[in-house]
Each structure stands twice: as structure tokens, then as C-alpha cells.
Amino acid sequence: MSSVLQLASEYDPYKILGVSRSASQAEIKRAYKSLAREWHPDKNKDPKAEDMFIKISKSYEILSNEERRSNFDRYGQMDENQPFGQSQHHGFRSFHNSFYFDESFFHFPRSRDFADSKYMLHHAQFNSDVLPDSHKRPYLIKVTSEWCFACIHIEPVWKETVQELEPLGVGIGIVDLGYERRLANQLGAHRAPSIIGLVNGRVTFFHQAVVREHLRQFVEDLLPQKLVEKITDNNYKTFLDSWHVENKPSLLLFDQVPIVPLLYKLTAFAFRNYVRFGFVDQGETHNARLLRMFNINTYAPTMLLFKEDTEKPVDIIQARGMKRQIMDEFVSNNKFLQVPRLVSQQLFDELCPVKQFHRRRKYCVLLITREDQAFLPGNKAFLDFATTNKKDVLRFAYIYQRHQQPLCQALLYNQAVVSPQVRGQVVILERRSQAGKVLYRSVSGGWNGSEEDKYLLHEQLELLQKDPTYLSSDATLPELNNEMAPIFIIQWMNAAYDYIIQIYDDLLYSNWREMMPILSLIFSALFILFGTVIIQAFSEPGDSKPRKPKPKEQPQTEDDASSRASTSSRPPRKDFVEVTELTDITYTSNLVKLRPGHINVVLVLTNVSKNALLRKFAKEVFSFSGTQTLHFSFLNADKHRHWMPSLLRSASEAAWSESHCDDDEESSDYSGHVLALNGYKKYFCIFRPVFTGDDPNDSSSETSEDRAGSKRGSSRATHIEVHHKLDRLGLWMERLMEGTLPRLQVPAWPMLDDTNNSFTES
Predict the structure, then answer these.
(1) Which of 2, 103, 421, 502 is deepest in the core (most CB within 10 A)?
(2) CA quadruple 396, 397, 401, 406: dihedral positive or negative?
(3) pLDDT at residue 394 tops 50
(4) Dmax of the chain from CA atoms?
(5) Average model confidence (pLDDT) for the chain?
């Protein structure tokens, strides 16, 4: 006894955690968390960190359990049977008392615990069996390896946890790093020991101290939230009445414990797609009415299952030691409503299975109806009929026509689903193949729930069981729409939430190896983003701030403009304005079929004024040449003299007269006019020359006769007049870019030929 007390004194859990013997559970828990963070082997590189961490975890395991704590206070014992210094950890004694090693300490393959062999996972088995099964139950997986000394320390706790959780329905697995490296990489486990949780195909790592209570809570946290709803006297009616919307039966568990048992949560997770689960705490004062209403025995857990009738349960089970097998069998026998609504192809396959040669025939009696108020009495009558005519070979269901239009059209070809008398339609069918082939027969007269309809349906069901050939019609049914599927944005939000949680978990525990793909993606995106910004910042400001043209550079003339006609779609260069002549070849592409949002600015000139106007035109529009949606062209009025009058006549007379005031629209001299043509929307804006008089630099003045003479041949007068025609074009271009210029609509663009009345459609 003295040696036991000596060991207890040397390994006192109170001293290890640094708390007094009268410390509360909250104080013990705070002390444990603080020390566990300090001495965790992943955080603390001290050689003694691992041993110290094991002592801290074992001390907390003892003091957090009132029975073990009481044993230590009375007898100085850490476990129920052994003192702390002689714990069940293989080889733990040898680290502190002697160099004694037994064969199991080294974990040779031949000495592996035989009980672990049934839990060993292999890569193919994991992907074919475990991953799909994780959508029905959570898995707790231990990653271990040979020569892993730390794996020995957690072995007793692992075995206790397996013995507790496996009967509840938790899947157990073990992965050996030495033999299943491929599976370990798939799980993201690169060191031993590691403990992993798997649910719904998602991997979660366990990062706390390996204590049975922590592992149990870890498994519970893996399950989705709101699997089980807390039910009281205030909300039980709403919970039971929701069968119509959810299309599921409702299961209530009455128990004395204040929290939902893990066994019940695991059952709810396995059958979450079929049944809704609620929990009633019998100790709550707000649940007295529920206990009286259903006459609940408060000395044993009780489960009530409700279907369409919310006042009376269809099945009940009561047992002191509720087992998982009993609960699974109870729920499996009541997965569907009396008359469920077909909302998905999966539900259709389960309710109305395809006929197999070795099985008895099963027929599906389907009511095609609507959710309108006028159809409710008929739907209720169909439910009553199904309840009183239950047979193993018959499955009753209903379907809403509006939600499953393709299937209704296939079954009711050339028939009206809804008649003026507000009648549904009953169809009896037998599925013959997975491809959708069915044999069926529609019950004549429709269905509104009258006694005559019930008698007729009952009669036809009797005939069907006597003669299977009674189903005379055949059809191929399309796949049903999944009415319960979440919309895309909900699916995206759930996936994003899981992704964020995974990143947070990896950052919190510095799991950098698993974080590398995510970090690589983030840094690549940041590099591309900032690289683009830096390149733009140090590039030449070509389009936003065009340089002034050099004196030697001249705008394009007729000769070089035609040579560049085929390249007019390229962005203009910085040092010149690319001006294309409108000819029979370029007219269609540069105007008639101009892309939406693009505008062609066209200068009208003659052979005499060509050089002067082009030079002035290039100077005025140069600052706008960097805009990708603007194109610049010129039209020779001497070659196409009828085009301008045709264009002006095609515009609305009111708009043209408003923009031209009192000028003669048929004036023969259109040189110096500039048109902004939107080929797609069929409108144009017009610029008219503002100066046609003398050159202000010339001191002499001319009379009207002189000006007329200059038009007939004076090159100097012509040069002065043309020089000022485009003086205010820059201001007009600014208004064009602002969108404040008046627009003249045209029904069609005129042709470039000499025919005055020729037009072309865009």
C-alpha cells in the first residue's frame, strides 16, 4: 500500500494540472486547456513535451470523471484497477522505472493486435465501401505505423472509444502508413498517430488530446447541425403538421436526459432523407401537456412515429436499453407516409421498384392531382382509400401535375388531367425496366373522392390481382424532377462554407502540407493580379495621352488610304490617324454591317479640297483616334455625288429641317461636312462647316462676285475657304463622345452607286 501511495504522490494529477483538490470541473478544464496548448508536441519542441502531454491528458481524463476522481481521492488510484504509475499503456512504465521492453512495445507486424485487423482499410475498399457509407454514418479513422512509440500511448483510449462508439453505429477504420501510403495521401495524413473523422465524404482532423470524452464529442461535432429538433408543448403541433410540406413521417423521442443522446443523433443522420426527428425532454416543465396527451411512461425512453394523422401515432416503441439495431428496424419499417408524394426519381424507385423475376409483382396506384384548394377533398379521400386498402402488392402515391409535367403527359396521352368538374386521375402501373418502361391503365371517370369513384377503383384493383394482363397500355416514363433539391446558390454557399472551415482548420493547426495546394492557388491569383497592375502602371500612356504629331508626318491621302483599307479594323497607331476611303468594297463592312456600338466618322470632300481637308481633319480628330469604337473614313463627293442627297432625303423631314434651319438641303457643295454614322442603329449626326468666308489672315476683302470667281478657279480663295471649314470640328467631336448631338434616323442606308433611289438594308 505504501508503494501505491508513493506512486500516487509522484504522479498526482492535481499537481500535474496545477489545481487544488477542491477545484471545480470548470477550473480543471481551464487548467487542462492551458497546459495542453503549452505542451502539445506539435507546438513545443522540448524532448519531454510528449511525455508531459500524456501525463496532462491522463490527469484530465481522471479528474474530469467523478468516479475516477473519487477513487484517487480515497485510494490514490488513477484507473479503476491500477495506479497512474502502472497504467495500461504498453511500455509506459519502462520510460520512468527501468529499461524493460516487451515484444508488443515495438509493434512488430506479427504482434499486432488481432482485433485491429478487422478495421484495417485499403485504398480500393475505402473508395468503394467507406466513402459511400460515410453519407449514412460517420467514421473514426486512426492513422498508425510500425515503430510509432506515440501510437502506443493512445492505444488504450482508442480501444475504449471503439468499444463505446461502434455499437452506436460509428464506423471504425485503421490506416497503416507503411502499407497504405496511397490511402494516407488521399486522406491528407502524413504522420502517425493521427485521428481522422469522415462524414459525407469530407475529412476532418482531430487536434485535441486523445481522451475518450474528446473523441466522443469530436464524432458528435462531425454530424450536421439541426438533425434533431427540440420539441415542446408550444411547437409540437407545427412539427407534426409539416409532414405535408416535408413529405416525411415524424419521429418523437421522449427521454429523461436534457440533451439529445448521440445514439438518436446517429439514427437521425442515417435516415435524414426519409424521416424528421424530434426530441422531447421529459424533465422540462413545458412538456407536461405532451406527456399527458400521448400517455408517455417516464421511466423508459419512448419513440412515437406519426404519419398523416398527427393525433395518433402509427407505431410506438419503448425500451430501457435502446439499441441501434432496434431503432434502425423501427425507422426502416416506417420510412414512407401512407400516401407519399413522388418528388424525386429516387423515391419513385423505392416506392415502385422494377419487377424482378424472383420477386412478387408490385403495383403502384398513382393519383395525378393538383395542390389547389378545390382538389383537397379528393386528395383526402384518396388517402382514406389507401389506408383501408393496404396490401403488400400495392403502393399508393400521388403526384402534382404542375411539378412533374413530362411524366403526366406520358401517362395521360390525349387525356385531360383536370376536367371542369375538378377531378384528378388515377393510374395503376407496373414498372418493367430501369429505362422507364411501364405497363399501366388509367381508371376511367377520373377521381374526385366520391363513393362511386372508390367502388370503381376497388373493383379494378381486384381485377388486376386476378389478371395481370389487365394493364393493357405501355409507355416509357421520363425521369422525375427532384423537387427537394436545393437551388444552385444554396449548394454553392454550402460548398464555400465547408471550404472556408477547412482553410481555417488548417491555418489554426499549421497543417502546412495540406495547405500547400490552397496557398499555391492564392499566391498565383495574387501574382497575376498585381503583375497586371504593375505592367499597366509602367507601360506607355499611349491611348490616354497621345503625343503631338511630328511636323513631317502627314495624314493619309487617297493613295495610301486605299492601300490600308483591308487593315482598317486595327487600332490606330499613336503617330497618325488611319482614314479609309468609302468605296464599293469597304462600304458594306465600314457602314452597313458595322458592329454594334461602333461609329464611323466620315469626312465628305472633293478632288479639289481633298489634301487640305484631310490634313485639317487629321489634326482635329487626332485626340480621339485612340477610341476603339471610332472609325475614320472619307467620301469623295465627286465620285458619289448622289449619296449625300439620298441620305438627307431618307432622314425624317422634320429632324432634317430642324438641324439645317433655312439652308438648302439640296446644296451641291457638301465638302467639309462630317457625318457620324451608326450602321447598326441606323442613325447619323451631321457637322456643317462654320466658316466659308475670307481668310482672316488676308488683309484684302472680296465681294460676292470675287467669291463666285474663286469657286470657278481661284486656287487661293479655295484654299482659304476650305482651311476654315473644319475649324470647330474638335468641339463637335466632344459633343459626339458625350452623346449630346441630335440624331437623325434613316430607314436604310443608300447605296454608293449613281442611282438616286437605291438603298440597302443592314
Answers:
(1) 502
(2) negative
(3) yes
(4) 140
(5) 78
Long-range contacts of 316-325 (CB under 8 A, 24+ apart): 322/263, 323/167, 324/167, 324/168, 324/169, 324/263, 324/266, 324/267
Residues 306, 315: Cα–Cα separation, whole Å: 7
CA distance 226 to 559: 80
For residue 448, give Cα distances in angstroms to 27, 83, 369, 418.
69, 77, 10, 11
Give the position of cell 421520363: 478
Q: Answer for the pair 184, 190: CB distance below 8 angstroms, yes or no.
A: yes
Q: Which residue has the cell 461502434?
A: 166
Q: What pLDDT band is residue 306 in, cutting at 50, 70 and 90?
A: very high
Predicted confidence band of residue 84 (pLDDT cuts 50, 70, 90):
very low
Measured distance CA(472)–CA(439) in Å, rounded: 7
C-alpha closest to that of 371 among 323, 404, 347, 349: 404
User: Which is it for the CA torsion 109, 112, 114, 118, positive or negative?
Assistant: negative
Q: Reduced to 3 states, what is the DSSP secondary structure of residue 598?
A: coil
3-state secondary structure 301-342: CEEEEECCCCCCCCEEEECCCCCHHHHHHHHHCCCCCCCCEC
CB 173 within 8 A of CB 121: yes
* The three three-digit cell numbers of residue 581, written as one number: 476611303
Q: Using an 8 Å Cβ cutoff, are 383 and 308 in contact?
A: yes
Q: How many CB atoms lie within 10 A of CB 536?
A: 9
How far apart (Å, rounded) are the C-alpha atoms in residues 525 and 528?
A: 5
- What CA–CA distance (Å, rounded) separates 213 from 170? 15
- pLDDT over threshold 60, residue 3: no
DSSP H or E segment with residue 16: helix 13-17
pTM of the model: 0.54
What would the grid cell of residue 590 be?
465600314
What is the predicted pLDDT for the residue at 502?
60
Cell of 547: 503625343
Helices then strands, each counted (H, E), the chain: 30, 22
Of the candidates 386, 351, 363, 353, the one whose C-alpha atom is nearest the C-alpha of residue 458 is: 386
Check pLDDT > 70 for residue 559.
no
Contact 290, 280 (CB under 8 A): yes
Three cell numbers, residue 720: 482659304
| 700-718 tens-digit pLDDT | 334 333 333 433 333 443 4
Question: Among all chains, which residue has been given the C-alpha cell 483538490?
Answer: 21
Measured in whole angstroms, the distance separating CA 222 from the mean position of its chain's CA atoms is 21
- Round to whole Å and give the CA distance between 390 and 397: 12
Q: How far apart are CA 66 and CA 395, in angstroms?
A: 54
